[in-house]
């Protein structure tokens, strides 16, 4: 049934010939424009579906009131949300069945589905690659991990009663690739990305075939074929802006021609120069989901995990951590960046840019409310929201050898990091000294030998202007919460640390106003998190 939406607005056409309107209309079937004295003087210039913004160009020289009618065919159901399921939700045929049921239990949604590799497939593929480097060409078929991966995927296909042929070609290619690695005796970052891509390529093919088998029309997509364009930083690539229109065109185009639930590989992209498969860093399917959410301008992005939402701390450190009902994009981004495995560090960016709510839900317990992440929330009662631990951090104490008041010291220090391509996490400064930590995610994805020589190089360069002390095996404890109440937070923190006899080596309050970071020794960190959790979340009198 056709539905017509009218709106009007005042604009100075001569000064601003392009008029934008935010609207929920996703498919503009026809556009009619009426002005005070002219009719049909405007034409539809572009529809940016990503931000639900309709842009119209007006050719009239002086138009006061522009009235537009957009006719939208409501009978054509539009894609509404993204649902991402991680490896923990897809560990077996049984789990795939439950996930399919879960998706179909929302009849009012038309979701785009993003899937990770099954269970621990990515780890197994990486291990198989490492073994292939040294096992010799004749021994590839005895790599335990290869047999495991083959067996898991063939068994899953069989149990779901889908044709093995959907993954047969991939299993053959995987073995050939491992043979190639064994022959070359090397596993480059580029080959690693190609190798791990088999996980997502196979899980999505099996799942799409299963959905079709049970009568839910689905279509499988490899992200690297539908416009996920990235930098060529293999194993940790960044998504480029061109991705959004390309993905929108691809998914919307197919959907409007022939609607079928899109089942998209998470984690993968295509390098813009190399045209090779890239990956978005471990846990990158969350970022795939938010990127699709923004590209299509969807109503909601759901990431389905094996926990009841974002928790007050890592449940592996403290099993009784509680779900956090609401977070802002800023809080979630800090939490992810500072080490909470539950969300990919970059995943909040597209959601925040497009202002699309993200819901973190439990695929094992779909009734649990989960965590809702939005632009703003009521902070009046908020003190501390979550405690995050990032281990194995390198810290540098840098003391200037120049006189007090000498300008340019900070600039020189940071230009050294820029030149060496090393990013810095937490910083605290006085006039003549800086303490900082180095981002392990960027540093540690390099080879061990390369890391060591890069650190030596940093120290060597810094020693030209300062006395440098390199401290390893440190942890960052990030307190995500309402920094407006930092005095209350810090009072409680130092009470706990004093009682436990733990010395804080550096402290920094982020400009984001949601994070206070403390640096302690690695071997004290977990105990410290448990004690802080007890003080903030389990003791009513202290909170
Ligand atoms: N603050 C936290 N809140 C929730 N989960 C966390 C937190 N910190 C670490 N985790 C871990 O993150 C896991 C979920 O993330 P992940 O394994 O990436 O899920 P998936 O593979 O389903 O995307 C949980 O099982 C939990 O062990
Ligand atoms: N399979 C990839 C990508 C991913 O996002 O996985 P998960 O959703 O299971 O964290 C990984 O293990 O890193």
From TrEMBL:
Belongs to the aspartokinase family. The keyword Kinase applies. Its main location: plastid. Its EC number is 2.7.2.4. It catalyses: L-aspartate + ATP = 4-phospho-L-aspartate + ADP. It is found in: Plastid, Chloroplast. Involved in the first step of essential amino acids lysine, threonine, methionine and isoleucine synthesis via the aspartate-family pathway. It comes from the Eukaryota. The keyword Transport does not apply. One of its GO terms (cellular component) is chloroplast stroma. Keywords: Amino-acid biosynthesis, ATP-binding, Chloroplast, Kinase, Nucleotide-binding, Plastid, Repeat, Threonine biosynthesis, Transferase, Transit peptide. It is an enzyme of class 2 (transferase). One of its GO terms (biological process) is lysine biosynthetic process via diaminopimelate. GO terms for molecular function: aspartate kinase activity; ATP binding. Residues 398-478 form the ACT domain. InterPro entries: AceGlu_kinase-like_sf, ACT-like_dom_sf, ACT_Aspartokinase, ACT_dom, AK-LysC-like, Asp/Glu/Uridylate_kinase, Asp_kinase, AsparK_Bifunc_asparK/hSer_DH. This is Aspartokinase.
């Amino acid at each position: 049934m056709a539905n017509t939406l009218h709106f009007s607005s005042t604009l100075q056409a001569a000064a601003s010939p392009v008029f934008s309107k935010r609207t929920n209309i996703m498919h503009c079937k026809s556009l009619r424009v009426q002005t005070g004295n002219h009719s049909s003087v405007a034409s539809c210039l572009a529809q940016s579906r990503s931000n639900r913004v309709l842009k119209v160009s007006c050719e009239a020289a002086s138009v006061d009131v522009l009235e537009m009618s957009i006719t939208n065919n409501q009978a054509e159901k539009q894609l509404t949300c993204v649902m991402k399921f991680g490896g923990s939700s897809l560990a077996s045929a049984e789990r795939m069945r439950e996930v399919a049921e879960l998706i179909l239990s929302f009849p009012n949604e038309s979701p785009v589905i993003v899937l990770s590799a099954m269970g621990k497939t990515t780890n197994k593929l990486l291990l198989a690659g490492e073994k292939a480097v040294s096992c010799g060409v004749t021994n590839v078929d005895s790599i335990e991990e290869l047999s495991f991966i083959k067996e898991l995927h063939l068994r899953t296909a069989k149990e779901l009663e889908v044709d093995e042929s959907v993954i047969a070609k991939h299993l053959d290619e995987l073995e050939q690739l491992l043979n190639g690695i064994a022959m070359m005796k090397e596993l480059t970052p580029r080959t690693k990305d190609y190798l791990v891509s088999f996980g997502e390529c196979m899980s999505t093919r099996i799942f799409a075939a299963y959905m079709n088998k049970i009568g839910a029309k689905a279509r499988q997509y490899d992200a690297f074929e539908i416009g996920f364009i990235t930098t060529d930083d293999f194993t940790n690539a960044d998504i480029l802006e061109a991705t959004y229109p390309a993905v929108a065109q691809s998914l919307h185009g197919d959907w409007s021609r022939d609607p079928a639930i899109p089942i998209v590989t998470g984690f993968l992209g295509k390098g813009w120069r190399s045209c090779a498969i890239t990956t978005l860093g471990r846990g990158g399917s969350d970022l795939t989901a938010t990127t699709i959410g923004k590209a299509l301008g969807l109503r909601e992005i759901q990431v389905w995990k094996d926990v009841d939402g974002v928790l007050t701390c890592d449940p592996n450190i403290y099993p009784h951590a509680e779900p956090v009902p609401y977070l802002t994009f800023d809080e979630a981004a800090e939490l992810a960046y500072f080490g909470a495995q539950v969300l990919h560090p970059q995943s909040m960016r597209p959601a925040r840019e497009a202002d699309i709510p993200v819901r973190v839900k439990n695929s094992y317990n779909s009734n649990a409310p989960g965590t809702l992440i939005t632009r703003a929330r009521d902070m009046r009662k908020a003190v501390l929201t979550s405690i995050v631990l990032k281990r194995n951090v390198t810290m540098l104490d840098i003391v200037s050898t120049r006189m007090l008041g000498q300008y340019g010291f900070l600039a020189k220090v940071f230009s050294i990091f820029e030149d060496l391509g090393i990013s810095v996490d937490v910083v605290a400064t006085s006039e003549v000294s800086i303490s900082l930590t180095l981002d392990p995610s960027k540093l540690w994805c390099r080879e061990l030998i390369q890391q060591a020589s890069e650190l030596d190089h940093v120290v060597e360069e810094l020693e030209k202007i300062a006395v440098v002390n390199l401290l390893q095996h440190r942890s960052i404890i990030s307190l995500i919460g309402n920094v407006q109440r930092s005095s209350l937070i810090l009072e409680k923190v130092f009470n706990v640390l004093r009682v436990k006899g733990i010395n804080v080596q550096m402290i920094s309050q982020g400009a984001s106003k949601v994070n206070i970071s403390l640096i302690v020794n690695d071997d004290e960190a977990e105990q410290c998190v448990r004690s802080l959790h007890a003080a903030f979340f389990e003791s009513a009198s202290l909170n």
